[in-house]
Amino acid sequence: MGRTKEYDRRRVLGKAISVFWKKGFEATSMSELIRTTGLNSASLYKEFRNKEGLYETALDEYREQELEPFIRPLIDEPNMKGINTFLKGAIKNATNTDFTGCLMMNTLAEKEVVSTGAVKRVEKFCTRLETILEGAIRGAQKSGDIPPEKDPVALAHYLLCLIQGMVLYGRVEDHKPHVETVIDTVKQALVK
Amino acid sequence: MGRTKEYDRRRVLGKAISVFWKKGFEATSMSELIRTTGLNSASLYKEFRNKEGLYETALDEYREQELEPFIRPLIDEPNMKGINTFLKGAIKNATNTDFTGCLMMNTLAEKEVVSTGAVKRVEKFCTRLETILEGAIRGAQKSGDIPPEKDPVALAHYLLCLIQGMVLYGRVEDHKPHVETVIDTVKQALVK
DNA sequence: TATATATTGGAACGAATGGTCAACAATAAT
DNA sequence: ATTATTGTTGACCATTCGTTCCAATATATA
Hints:
The structure is a homodimer. The first copy, chain A, has helices at residues 9-27, 30-37, 41-48, 51-76, 80-94, 103-109, 116-142, 152-169, 176-191. The first copy, chain A, has nine helices and no strands. At the A-B interface, α1, α6, α7, α8 and α9 of A face α6, α7, α8 and α9 of B.
């Protein structure tokens, strides 16, 4: 009973994500979020508690909508083919015209300002991605695509580290053309 | 003629850097800067025009004090030895206990919020570092440390990209132990 | 239809924001 | 010693911040 909600939670989160993504947590004001989401402060606070709550929920939604499809190839095909698809996705993202980096990685740069819950979410995702990457690397070793003497854990860290770099790197307009050549160098480091 | 300044510009900038470094541009308030630098608002505004001016000046000082010593090995010894020293410095920075990333790279993550002058400074430094790295790589190729068929420009981009990744990566506490192993993988990519 | 319950719009909150100002203090040149 | 010039002080400005509150509105159930 009671009045029915006029807004769509998913749509609201999508709008919130796009603002946070572009400007970060601190630089995004509630008034801006109220404007772009379309719903008013009372409803916004009722649904997400406060600004931090909205940000954390946005992070969850972002992971689900943007990041999970991105790492899916590694899960579905834990081998060299999966890794290649994954890296291709990384290029595509990093060279996107209106690319604003990655909400998770941006959060890392804002670490000291953001809620502990937000930092926890980033760290948790990083750990997860590393584990998945490690699995795919082991798969590629089994099929002979990656030399067996290489340490899968070290390689996974290396790859994740590089993806993060590419994501930041891509924010400098002039650098975008070079992202692709970077990946080529990376692949060499993997298979040789 | 006129009254003499009571503050030391360098010292003030140093304090400002440390706050900006930790919290970023947007999350740092003028009142906090006034508190930590010790001088009051009027003097601060007189010296640096406004918050953006202070940030840009801080960026310049940061580059000179923190970054230039860091890339000096590449200039003094533009060869494999210089590259190795440079990479060692990167590890040391990325694994520092109270490491707060790199002010330049953090600025990149805050790109949309920060003044255009600040972004310009970051891009300019990136370009400079790339050129210097490229020179060192060419030197290493001459001495046979890096295979001659590799593209020095591509390698330079690759390295810079990875350094950026390491810097972000090091902000996650659990990842610090792995930074060193990442560098090992990188070196392999260079010399093979 | 009446009632209980939920959402909505928007005014209002105190605190903090970046920034300014006029009065006062100190110095160097005349 | 006077004067011109610069630095310092602390109060003060309008604006915006995140957040709360309440009356008005809409709806499911009794």
